[in-house]
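This section describes the prediction task in plain terms. A model, or a person checking by hand, is given the sequence of a single protein chain and must write out its three-dimensional structure as a string of tokens. No templates, partner chains or ligands are provided. The sample shown here is typical of the held-out split.
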Amino acid sequence: MTTTSGSSARSGPADPTPQATDPDDAGDTAVPAAGEADDLCAQAQDLAENGHLKRAAKLYQQAVAANPRPAVQARALLGLAVVQDQRGDLAAAREAARRALATGDARYAPRAAYHLALSLEQEGAHGEAARVWHRLLDLGGPAYSAVARYGLAREAELRGEPEEAEEHWEAVLELPPADQAISRLHATTVVEAARDLAGRLLERGRPDAAAVAVERGLSVGDDPGLRLLRAATHLERAIADVGAVADQPANEETQGAHPEPRTSGAAVELLAGLLALRGEPDSAEQVWRAGLDSRDRDTAEAVRERLRRPFAQLPEEGGEEPPEPWWDVYLEEAVATSSAPALAGELFAVITQMHALLAVPVVEGEARPAALRAAMEEALRTPSELVWGGAVHADFRRRLSAAMGEDVLPENWPDGR
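The expected answer:
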């Protein structure tokens, strides 16, 4: 693309070869009269909305060259800035926005400042962006004041100046009196700023302040992001409350304030679950471990009961309590480390592999004893490489030894050949 307009100064056929271009792109380059600038802006806007950005830019440029009255000039410059930005010519877009801002027009100058400051932010030119945001503050109006304050809050955060940032955050979330209407731009800005600030405050461990910001935003518009953040503030408060119960030390000095074992068990279970929900499985595991290792035996037992609550209960045989299954220790580990899905995945994978090893000779009608024995031995060895594989083999050895009165299996069964 060249930076000049008009036809080239070279000879050629009288009837040039047709080009695959918009016929409207060959517009007149003559400077129009000032009174035509408003119509040119309207035409340019229509072209831009229909995707003819190059032609729209030409018409906006012609409107600017007509030197119309300040309001139309500001409109043309702002339109040119937007179109050039859409075309990817950021330098031309910013120059047009600066000129539109310089007009001081009450309607278009604030829009130009908004467009320019955002463009500068995206480019990383934060110093100039901050100056433009300050300029926007001077243009008046609560909506653009909120927009400017939001921009200044972000810039202060980037500079590491929390006190200045907090002042701007408070200003952008300051709402007009209840009897005054709030514009859509103002409401949108408040919602976006509230969502941004609440997220930052949650990351800094300030859920109460985040909750205040969320409610400010929700007061002017319903927003799924803000509702999710409000739930996150409730989560953080719940973690703090339950943590205060779960962390109570069990010693004589705090005997009066120490919760009952069942209360401690419930607190540990809830706190571990909330931490896992927050995406901190390691912290959740530490909570379970601390509860299970409590010096108070009743508390430790209450925690273990909570940990094992989702486990399937084996039926009693002859009125006697069944022995603890070999797999319970692995289930406890999976619950405490929030890795139950991984354990289930391992189990299903082993079952699938064992099934395939045993199904093939059945489907093929295998009748040779040696081949059938080899398939069964291979199926038995399937879980050996897993953490809990040895426990499966050990459990069978124990049961067989109890039934036969002695251990009849080789020492390295079933992996030995």
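For orientation: The CA atoms of residues 207 and 233 lie 5 Å apart.
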